[in-house]
Amino acid sequence: MVLPTASHFDALVALRNVGKTFPNGIVALAGLDFAVRPGEFVALLGPSGCGKSTALRIVAGLSEPTAGSVEWSPATGRGQQSRIGFVFQEPTLMPWASVFNNVALPLKLKGVPAAKIAERVEAVLDRVGLGAFGRAFPRELSGGMRMRVSIARALITEPQLLLLDEPFAALDEITRFKLNDDLLRMWQALRTTIVFVTHSVFESVYLSSRVVVMAAGPGRVFRELAVDASYPRDRGFRTSAEYGGFCRSASEALAQAMAAGGEA
After folding, report:
1. pLDDT digits over 134-154, tens only?
2. Per residue, what are the HEC states of the chain?
3. pLDDT means per 10 residues in the chain (264 residues)?
């Protein structure tokens, strides 16, 4: 099923005809146009180099578009960057700091009282399954656990919008499946809005309510696909004919997007 683009009246955030040209002349994005509704789980799917991460950084305010605009719901306001959580491809943790202090950093920078910091850090570590690891250091954790710490740090500010840039790409399949399930549970519990960048068809379909397929050369939206499957999702969904059908549709759209290349 192909979805219409969300209108600017009901979107939490919308990219309108966004372009991005880097100083070296590379055109990463051109005419990128998509919107995210409050409470959605949206996957940005595309091959490496199609501008997925660039689009995410523009939404986060970490990069400015060279054309077009980023529009925010009046209830959010463009200046409220504190309402955005960002999880990078690598955990980017401070190796000299404990798990507790890595997660607490955003609150310390905001000047939150120590007692409130402790309460909130303990709560978010419990939510990501690391309640017993507050005193551990990143070097003592597995790759999956370090990524959980990174997600906890993004959640500590209680963001309205959580942006994740291929956070599980470097993990083994078993760990990746487990973190997919954990992320879905957190999303359902918190009801935050998520935009998740991935190059995996299977991951995009399993997680999201809508898949935005991007084409490269330069990056733009090629197609949007609804994943009309109910939540919660589990191993049964992963092995179902319904899941297989959605994956087939997304895979076909991705192949067509890659074949389209730089065609307008």
Report:
1. 999 999 999 999 999 999 999
2. CECCCCCCCCCCEEEEEEEEECCCCCEEEEEEEEEECCCCEEEEECCCCCCHHHHHHHHHCCCCCCEEEEEECCCCCCCCHHHEEEECCCCCCCCCCCHHHHHHHHHHHCCCCHHHHHHHHHHHHHHCCCCCCCCCCHHHCCHHHHHHHHHHHHHCCCCCEEEEECCCCCCCHHHHHHHHHHHHHHHHHHCCEEEEEECCHHHHHHHCCEEEEEECCCEEEEEEEECCCCCCCCHHHHCCHHHHHHHHHHHHHHHHHHHHCCCC
3. 48 94 93 94 92 94 94 68 83 95 95 93 94 96 95 93 94 92 93 94 96 92 95 93 96 91 56
Domains of the chain listed by start with CATH number? 1-34+54-76 (no CATH), 80-194 (3.40.50.300)
Q: Has this prediction a pTM greater than 0.85?
A: yes
Phi, psi of 42 (to 5 degrees): -110, 130
Distance CA 60, CA 81 (A): 7
